[in-house]
Specification:
By secondary structure, the chain is α/β, with parallel strands linked by helices. It has 2 domains: 42-165 and 246-293, 2-enoyl-CoA Hydratase, Chain A, domain 1 (Alpha-Beta Complex); 307-534 and 545-580, 2-enoyl-CoA Hydratase, Chain A, domain 1. Helices cover 45% and strands 20% of the residues. The strands form 5 sheets. Strands 10, 14, 16, 17, 18, 20, 21 and 22 form an 8-stranded mixed beta sheet that branches. The protein has a 6-stranded parallel beta sheet with strand order 8-6-5-4-1-9, sandwiched between helices. The protein has a 4-stranded antiparallel beta sheet with strand order 7-19-23-15, with helices on both faces. The chain is globular. The N and C termini lie far apart (64 Å). The mean pLDDT is 86.
């Protein structure tokens, strides 16, 4: 029997060691692929077309994490560029004599309108070079069409479809679900519009929340109609009628209405592109992907010693280091401090795309932004969302720039404790006995309801943080506290409306924010440096192996429903004092 266990444990150890070594080998292979791909310069031929595909969730910054780029089912590496490199590529192509034009591959585009606005505006700038932009797709949604609307020509497959049916936004209300599992959210908040907790304690949308959603979605929709109408030489009323009456039900309808330029098969589009590039008739058009074009040398990049730091503040705001999907207070504070204390950095641009998060972590970042402002110009560039804690860290800046369809504001605070007494006692049969010294030593324990005294204590804490939030916004934006309080109360705003009430200074993208920072620093020549420094490829592989694989297969299994699973997962993590929107805004 001893021999049996000896051989069994030896076999188990060998088995585990084999898979560990296999993982390290895989990590080495993937890391090597990434390293070699990123470092290899690419030389494009004359009369080449840059291909842009936006049919994936575009991060703010290209990741160096191989698991973000790796297709586990097909065992292949796919390069998904961040917004920073997409914009950089379009700018580079504008001045590259070997690039004749851009080909947009259209499809289902799962990105917010602020991200698409930046790309769209960059394509408008690209067209000033007199180079062409041609778009083609089979099944095309409004997000994708919004970008394509600036193209010289838009084509759809004869059996394809263009979906233009308007915008809507859905919010999950979880009260009944929590009741079924025996969990009662204990919510304490300040701000009548602070819908961040409403979804946990209500069955339906409040009038205040409905009003604010109608306001910011309506503002984004109006921007969509105005810009599409301008690009396609239509009136706003014509575009509204096309959408509201669902006038496009077949691809022929889109052509008849002038929303697209024709129905073509891909080979016909390819032939047209070949002619536009002046290539020999028997040759095919030459294409270069965004991933490969990233490695084409940009001769226009400055080598100046003067630097502008672009600090990427993206994701949930959490304490500590954070990761690619969260904004760690320690990581961001260190990056800001580095740019503040290094004299080679002449200005700082904070690129914020965050719904907020921990009040404590937000304040840690706010402090560093405030210190940096005393040393050099600090400008904020807002992405898709810069709300609640995301706005808190922005308010001390010298200037705030946002896209017209950025979602911001949400100046409010809430505290959340999940009371799982019924779940523990009645559902699971678990009884918790507590021995304590101090009346409030078990405050926040999940096995009990809050007493009125405890609720009062937490409410005072929430009110204190809210008043501090309002004071800091008032100070940073040079507004009165009374006025900030009147536009705060947790209300969410689209940037066009936020500009009218003083929460935003300029409408525009990251490039505009950088230009403002350069002007404030009196710089004519400078180079941009991205911060925080990215983690080592191997560290990313080892640190994120389990989480990335789990997320990957969950997305594959749940498809579009993954967003709801992810929202519930986030909600269950919230406890303590929070500055956050609790629903991730998705406008379909």
């Amino acid at each position: 029997m001893k021999q049996f266990f000896k051989f069994m444990f030896a076999s188990m150890l060998g088995f585990m060691l084999f898979f560990f070594l296999l993982f390290l080998l895989l990590a080495g292979i993937v890391g090597g692929i990434v390293a070699s791909t990123d470092s290899k310069l690419v030389d494009v031929k004359e009369h080449t077309i840059l291909t842009i595909n936006l049919n994936y969730p575009i991060p703010e910054r290209t990741s160096n994490n191989p698991f973000e780029q790796f297709d586990f089912l097909n065992f292949e590496l796919k390069k998904f560029l961040g917004l920073n490199d997409i914009i950089s590529n379009i700018q580079k192509a504008k001045n590259d004599s070997k690039i004749d034009g851009i080909y947009l591959e259209l499809g289902i585009c799962p990105n917010d309108y602020a991200t698409l606005e930046e790309i769209r505006n960059e394509l408008i700038e690209f067209k000033k070079s007199k180079k062409f932009v041609v778009a083609f797709g089979e099944l095309v949604d409004e997000h994708s069409y919004y970008v394509a609307s600036v193209s010289d020509k838009i084509y759809i497959h004869p059996s394809g479809q263009l979906v233009m049916n308007g915008m809507s936004s859905q919010v999950l209300y979880l009260k009944n679900m929590f009741e079924k599992i025996g969990v009662k959210p204990e919510l304490i908040r300040h701000g009548k519009f602070k819908a961040a907790g409403e979804t946990l304690i209500s069955e339906r949308m409040s009038d205040e929340n409905r009003a604010q959603i109608q306001s910011y979605v309506g503002s984004i929709f109006n921007t969509f109609i105005e810009n599409v109408a301008s690009s396609r030489k239509k009136t706003k009323e014509e575009i509204w009628a096309i959408i509201n009456e669902l006038q496009i039900q077949h691809p022929e309808d889109a052509e008849t209405l002038g929303i697209i330029d024709g129905l073509k098969y891909y080979d016909e589009v390819e032939s047209e592109l070949t002619k536009q590039t002046s290539r020999v008739e028997n040759d095919k058009a030459l294409f270069v992907s965004m991933g490969k074009y990233k490695n084409v040398q940009d001769k226009n990049i400055s080598t100046s010693d003067n630097k502008i730091a672009i600090i990427y503040c993206t994701g949930e705001i959490v304490s500590g280091k954070g990761d690619e999907k969260t904004m760690g207070s320690e990581t961001i504070a260190e990056a800001i401090k580095k740019a503040r204390t290094d004299n080679s950095y002449k200005a700082i641009v904070l690129r914020i795309n965050s719904p907020g998060g921990s009040a404590m972590a937000s304040d840690v970042i706010w402090r560093e932004v405030s210190l940096a402002k005393k040393a050099k110009p600090v400008v904020v560039s807002m992405g898709g969302v810069a709300a609640s804690g995301g706005y808190y860290i922005a308010c001390p800046a010298d200037a705030i720039v946002a896209e017209a369809n950025t979602i911001t504001g949400s100046i409010g605070v809430f505290g959340l404790i999940l009371n799982a007494k019924e779940l523990l006692n009645q559902k699971l049969g678990i009884n918790v006995e507590t021995v304590k010294f101090g009346q409030f030593s078990d405050l926040g324990f999940p096995d009990k309801e809050l007493t009125e005294t405890e609720r009062s204590i937490i409410q005072k804490g929430v009110d204190r943080i809210y008043n501090d939030f309002v004071s800091k916004v008032a100070d940073g934006r040079k507004l009165s506290k009374e006025f900030v309080d009147s536009i705060a109360q947790g209300r969410v705003w689209a940037a066009t409306d936020a500009k009218k009430i003083g929460l935003v200074d300029e409408i525009g993208g990251l490039n505009k924010a950088v230009a403002i920072a350069a002007e404030k620093a009196k710089l004519k020549d400078y180079r941009k440096v991205n911060l925080p420094d990215e983690e080592d490829v191997i560290e990313n592989l080892i640190g994120g192996f389990d989480e990335n694989i789990t997320t990957y297969f969950a997305k594959k299994q749940l498809g579009e429903q993954y967003q709801y699973y992810d929202q519930i997962k986030k909600l269950l993590k919230y406890e303590g004092m929070l500055m956050r929107m609790n629903f991730d805004v998705k406008i379909d």
